[in-house]
Records
---
Amino acid sequence: MKKIAAADVFFTPEHREQIEKTAAECGYTVDFYPDGHLPPERAAEYEIVYGCCLPGELKAAANLKWFCCSFAGVDIYMDESIYPHPGVLLSNSSGAYGITIAEHIIMVTLMLLRRMPEFEKVVRERGWLRTLPMRSICGSSITILGTGDIGTNFAVRARALGAKAVRGVRRTQKAGDPAYDAMYTFAELDSVLPKTEILVMALPGTPETHHILSRERIALLPEGAYVVNVGRGSAIDQEALMEALNGGHLAGAALDVMVPEPLPKDHPLWDTKNLLLTPHISGNMSLGITCDRDVALFCEDLKNFASGKKLKRFVDRSLGY
Amino acid sequence: MKKIAAADVFFTPEHREQIEKTAAECGYTVDFYPDGHLPPERAAEYEIVYGCCLPGELKAAANLKWFCCSFAGVDIYMDESIYPHPGVLLSNSSGAYGITIAEHIIMVTLMLLRRMPEFEKVVRERGWLRTLPMRSICGSSITILGTGDIGTNFAVRARALGAKAVRGVRRTQKAGDPAYDAMYTFAELDSVLPKTEILVMALPGTPETHHILSRERIALLPEGAYVVNVGRGSAIDQEALMEALNGGHLAGAALDVMVPEPLPKDHPLWDTKNLLLTPHISGNMSLGITCDRDVALFCEDLKNFASGKKLKRFVDRSLGY
């Protein structure tokens, strides 16, 4: 019997049952590793690995055919040398994180627009203050850089909250998605930034997205704009962002991702003005619906794999997505 | 020429122009008092007062026919003795605050569900923590107590965010509003609370709503429920709420209103577990669209008043709403 290693920390008894049932239908048995790690002495038993095991743990899986990562962002699994052989297929769990990360984006955007960090400071000191100027998602011009599952889940919600315009910017041309008021390509980004009040970034970490929000592009954003990043820290020129916040060109930013992570205690990001930092939690697996969706996506692709079809969430390591 | 006093702190030149234009059409001139106060020596000149002047300032307005309060909640203007004569009409600005307060409710609800107070504490100490259980608005059962402008603006948004059920509870029976999955009366509240994961309260301060969320009703909420109050602090038995939070029956609460306001430095609310306090800011007038809407509502009712029609936002002081 062919074998699957399911190595992740979030599986409930219901998840295990669902994975085992689908595996049996496809001719596999499943071993679970609830600490999320693939033990080196057993790694060679598995044709399929699903979960969050470390990049360095895959090398020992000499008979591995497919690694299904339970994350959406798989940039740390791009290095070809971590695999036992070049034929190992890689897939991600894009589609599991849209709801939770969209809710995170709404929360931090409202916290910035409604001056919550300042009000919270007043409350911590048991004070009372009622008069800081606020803004609203309603009526705002929003640009979403990265229009995958996360960006699109947020776009739908931003429009429901009354945003004036929700523009999507993506790598390549694509037919208009009804979630967006207009769709642009990376090449058109410079023309979209000057009319952007809130820039939301949900991009994978690839060579193409590295520092895509450069110093020059930060300057193209209007005075008083906001930046929210939930994709990868590498997408922003962090030095330039800190300057734009400390100098007042930007009204605020919320970073759930940054370089490096975890952030060292002496890093200047901690002290940057109007910056709301969160420790890469926007997509964490503690939200039940995210976990349920992650398992469902794996089971769907397991059926594809077993019947010789293309994996739906296949990642091409030569392209980085 | 008959005269209007417009006494509030938020008027822009555009607001003044709009008020003056409508006033002229109705046969009035306007004096503006940008500090929000009606000077006693001039109060008798005005037939109409619009704004946020203090209850004690109205008595001197011997010729007052109509006071249009720029707030939505007018409980502090209910006492008959503050008026120069019983014939003074009172109206409020219900309708101006729905968007801003709905955004506040979404923000604080997500902050509670996503454990932001705890993550923010970690970030303040420059730490890194990724694993607190989170919940989502998506899939949650929400009950909204008070289905006016504010409750309904939130209901529409909660459904767009994927809430499983959004129930409205109001004073009297009313035909179903499409913003809600179901509509109940105050008399049915006890049957709705046990299936409520998130209780949102947006009620005016009236004798009927005083302590409507009593100790007994807090106990009817399921273990792990959340309470958000943006109406009036008097609607909650605050002692019982603190006990339910400190004892762990409730998972969290967000209060923008409380008793008393401002909260004294030694009040036990400051130290209550899983309580997110804000200093009555959810509807403050610093949000442009709120101010614009407030002025538009006054101008609409000014036309009604001048042509002898009923005021659209008339408040019956004998009923309290």
---
Amino acid sequence: MFSDIKFNKEVPVYIQIKDYIKEMILGGMLQSGEKLPSTREMSSIMKVSRNTIIYAYEFLEDEGFICIKKGKGAFVCEIHVEMQEKWNVNWKTLINDYARASESLDIVKHEAKWKKGMISFKSIAPDENLFDVEEFKKAFLNRMSIEGEKILNYGYAQGYRPLINYLLKYMKNKGVNIRGKDILITNGFTEGFDIILSSLTNTNDKVLCENPTHNTAIKIMKLHGLTIEGVDMDADGINIKKLQEKLEKDKFALSYFIPSYHNPTGIVMSPEKRVKLYKLLKKYNIPIIEDGFNEELRYTGAHVAPIAALCGEGNSVIYIGSFSKVLFPGIRIGWILGDENIIGYLESVKRSRNIHTSFLDQAVFYDYLQGGNFEKYIKKARKVYKEKYEFAIECAKKYISTGQVMGEGGLHIFIKIDGINARKLLDRCYDKGVIFTPGDIFYTDNKGADTFRLGFSRVNKNEIQIGFQIIGDEVSNLIRETMEEKNV
Amino acid sequence: MFSDIKFNKEVPVYIQIKDYIKEMILGGMLQSGEKLPSTREMSSIMKVSRNTIIYAYEFLEDEGFICIKKGKGAFVCEIHVEMQEKWNVNWKTLINDYARASESLDIVKHEAKWKKGMISFKSIAPDENLFDVEEFKKAFLNRMSIEGEKILNYGYAQGYRPLINYLLKYMKNKGVNIRGKDILITNGFTEGFDIILSSLTNTNDKVLCENPTHNTAIKIMKLHGLTIEGVDMDADGINIKKLQEKLEKDKFALSYFIPSYHNPTGIVMSPEKRVKLYKLLKKYNIPIIEDGFNEELRYTGAHVAPIAALCGEGNSVIYIGSFSKVLFPGIRIGWILGDENIIGYLESVKRSRNIHTSFLDQAVFYDYLQGGNFEKYIKKARKVYKEKYEFAIECAKKYISTGQVMGEGGLHIFIKIDGINARKLLDRCYDKGVIFTPGDIFYTDNKGADTFRLGFSRVNKNEIQIGFQIIGDEVSNLIRETMEEKNV
């Protein structure tokens, strides 16, 4: 007894001893009233200093596991862990429809998984090697010295005021009129969209969006019991005529669009189309939720204002912003910009969900941004991703030449090959060590079986070349086999 | 023009210049095609180095606001901010019942607000002055050097694996059998409770709890459309007989309890009562949600196991843990411990809500905890809060002697004074610069008008003395006036 303790290097020794003895007490190996070896004896059994044992005993006493009687020694307390009969609940029958749907729509759980050594085109997360960790550390230390310990205590549901002000100015610099508007900080786009739908829609409401569109948005809309009406896209984005037809026919609670480097197609909606879209929705008075996704990576030679900039002092567009596809997605910071009255309600919903987004993260992020790091970073990131994008397009044209290649930049391209089944293709490529995202998950109407998305942000040029070549070969094989089957 | 720019010290000068020119372009003061002063001219107008101007122009070009033509100069691009007609949506009519209820149940918005100079007994947040910021900084730097930039990229919905493992062991050390169980990291208790109710209840389900109980829990249950059945409490916690009566009469989907330093009463449920409660709920097969609130601050001389420890390998108790009432609430980290199958569903719900809790915060928190800082901190915190608690009890008995004082430690006490209206009392005290939480917000049945909660974690002894004296005086005044009214 006691001499079999094994120490690791990560945790202070006195804590390991404390936990070890606690475990013996809880496990019944040490009984109530039993005397522990003296600190001197224990120190020689465990081969650690006597002070370490004294320290461990002190903590054990603090936590109510032993009583130290002066001159008599340390005794195990009466511990009330009277194990009761095991009681099992059949939780599976208690899980409700919402949780079941969350699970079944959870692509992380149900799509093919990356394995070590594979080339993955699944991710459209930023390449972390571009992150400037040293500047981030500086921002942390600087902000800690300014804010001190209070930044680790509770903050406010709306967010960290300096960050809100920074983002208001940031949005103003995109051409958005911020008068009468305000910002709520959220845990990324996902929470922003979820809070908006939670607050502004009711089950069975109809929502307009592009078809295909962001898979997470589809998931959240489905979880809210909404009817999703996707509008087909042309090579330059949403088909305005089809949009108009839908608007004439039906009533919609909201509309949701991704105007820049649209997910999954990579299409940037032109300024002219943005105006047409805006005017049409205005005519039918259907509020717009604009997803600012990837806007930061845009490099077209001329500034293109978000849709939110078109309504001036009007309040009809709610903009969801996030740097997660560009910078530090792990800290989960996004924002909602909208009418200040709406933000007031969304703030209360946010408070009822999780009180607020980490104030530490918000403060450090603010410090990082306002020091000018973001501008420098984005300059570098745009250059790197642009190069990769151009190389990906080149390889796609060379190796996957039968496909229609979409995407004008950003972090991914989208491919459609008539007559091919992308899931069959994925199975084949998976065996060859290449993985990508089948396009059907982005469609609102079970279409898209012949499409797939290739994210290139976290692969290098070599991987793009090899991976695209493998995909191209398997496309050819599949097409040849289909032809042969037909001829038989 | 240009010479009226005013620089602040916080933001790099080239960014201020960039934003200033951007604003002029977006505001129409600089028109498309207009030529900007040369970098040399601008440098003399703005009184900054020419390099700064060159840098600012480069960024303006990157962002698509100006075009630099070699040998000719910098020209404003054609900017597409065609302001459209203002379009206002009447959002107030679109806000749904859930958001309206969130707002109306939001006590931050509707309860009396603290003003500078006031003595506030509202808060039961930890005293940030106890936080060991230097150790936290060390944990940050250490974890950053171990994890590097990848900790800033996307993580996993379930949480940061080392933290999950740490907490599993932590729960095991409380006597909980963790076999077949798992942990989901959440943004604090609030998110944990919300995710559980979202996944396991349906509108109009009945939920059992103590009466009074945690106000945020009541809010979340109401927002889920649940019927709340509160069971009255005695001086030593929930009345088991009344609990049994309710169980005999009705079917309940879930039950929710706060066994340690109960909010708001401060009562610790005895080990015997925990066993009785457990057995009774087992008999009726009503799963238990245990709120581990303030458990870490318990100092009774003997370890008291959480209810979750009573069911051994059974899965009938879901435990929600959080250190937020003790340590770093601003980073919003809590956890749910439960049956591993349930955790799988809750993980998908978490992913659909906000993908995951900040990985940076989880990693730093883990580093802080595993280094043994938590044990040292909690030792110090227990001592400080115990002293304050004892002083608060002393003052309550002295100055508010007509009241029944509840609370056995933790961060607050609870007072009931027959015949007094706590909101009237609050109004009076507010005028005298003292603020506290009226007790009615904790009741599930509109009772508690004669109760109030006094949090003492963030006030000093002097404030406790002065504040309690003021409350006591106003209690006496109110009672005297009521007597006089009756006599008139």
